[in-house]
Amino acid sequence: MKKPEPFTRRKFIKNTTGAAIVLGFPTIIPSSAFGANDKVQVAVLGVNGRGKDHIKGFQGLENAQVATLCDPDKNILTTRAGEFEATYGAKVKMEQDLRKVFNDKNIDAVSIATPNHWHTLAAIWAMQAGKDVYVEKPGTHNLYEGKKLIEAAKKYNRVVQHGVQLRSSVAMQEAIQHLRDGLIGNVYMARGLVFKWRPDIGDKGTEPVPAGLDYDLWTGPAEMRDFSRNYVHYNWHWSWNYGNGDVGNQGIHETDLCMWGLDVGLPTQIASMGGKFLWDDYKETPEVLTSTYHYPDQKKMIQFEVRPWMTNKEDGVGIGNIFYGSEGYMVVNGYNEYQTFLGKDKTPGPTRKEGGSHYQNFVDAVLAKNPAMCNAPVETAHLSSGLAHLGNIAYHTGRVLTFDPKTETFPGDDEANAMTKREYRAPYAIPKKI
């Protein structure tokens, strides 16, 4: 079976010729030669949660080396550096300020595992400094940032890998090829499922900033608020100022696969409904969210559902996807396993369970200086994140929205259009001109 193309590139934005440099931002370009033994020298930005997997993933590759750890919380940074030395028998450089990482000529690539509100700005700054970028999902915090991320990748000709690792899964690549080849017939609908255990987080109030935390840096482009453990460190996911709820957290893997499997971009009609039904806690984002994305011209639809607590599964799937076709359906469980059921009698069809290394794919592209080698190129960061953002905007408005994918605007809808971008806090602003 032939391997499917990892992504059908679309021309979103024309390359610009002007370059705007953020005040005080480093413009040093690193040397063209890679580190010792041709190893890509990687800096991991954000090492409290997902960043731990980044450290393990890159350090485990023969052609990559984690050279620097960066986190605004010096306590976490020191702990993680100690763990690194104990595990790998080597010291690692520590930095609290990511701008110092970008100034480091010895760093070839950065791996961004910060909170969502930092993803795009950190990636753009890194690219302006000549670094290649692995950026966690969602690649953006709002719709506007996706266009700027693509613009920067094209202007600076950098390798950008979006952290949707299912794109590097052998099983998922095979599954997509089955969909393209018509195994389940005309594929008209995809369903994304995020049924995760999300308990009451309470309300911890505010307090002085703990020693060791650079809270100004942690807040970055977001609105400054009094320090609270409601945000720092994990539960920022449930505050609109920093996160995007579970559709923009776990759900990006599933929004990405929905769009990849259906071979669609952004939709023209969106409806979303949900709310908080269980906990009277500090979460701002909905616990339960059901969103529908309609593609009338293609006669296709995406359904997406977030549930936070006790629930049934759907054909054994709590986190994953289901694709519906005229001749059968496909069930994707997690990131690396699919099953197919054919005909009215649901006869079992092809199935496979096999993963792949998303980190290795990125490093190989960096060494080859070839962005096209990435299984999850920069456009996926915009599209899969953008689908989540559109669902959240529809939730906020409480209306069925009409969207123009060409202009990426809601025609005649000032309320919805205002939600496609945020106000940025100086000096942590997305450059208006890349």
TrEMBL record:
InterPro entries found in the cross-reference section: Gfo/Idh/MocA-like_OxRdtase_N, Gfo/Idh/MocA_oxidrdct_glycsds, Gfo/Idh/MocA_OxRdtase_bact_C, NAD(P)-bd_dom_sf, TAT_signal
Limits of the Gfo/Idh/MocA-like oxidoreductase bacterial type C-terminal domain: 205-258, 358-429
Domain Gfo/Idh/MocA-like oxidoreductase N-terminal positions: 41-163
Domain of life according to the entry: Bacteria
Full protein name: Gfo/Idh/MocA family oxidoreductase
Source organism of the structure: Imperialibacter roseus
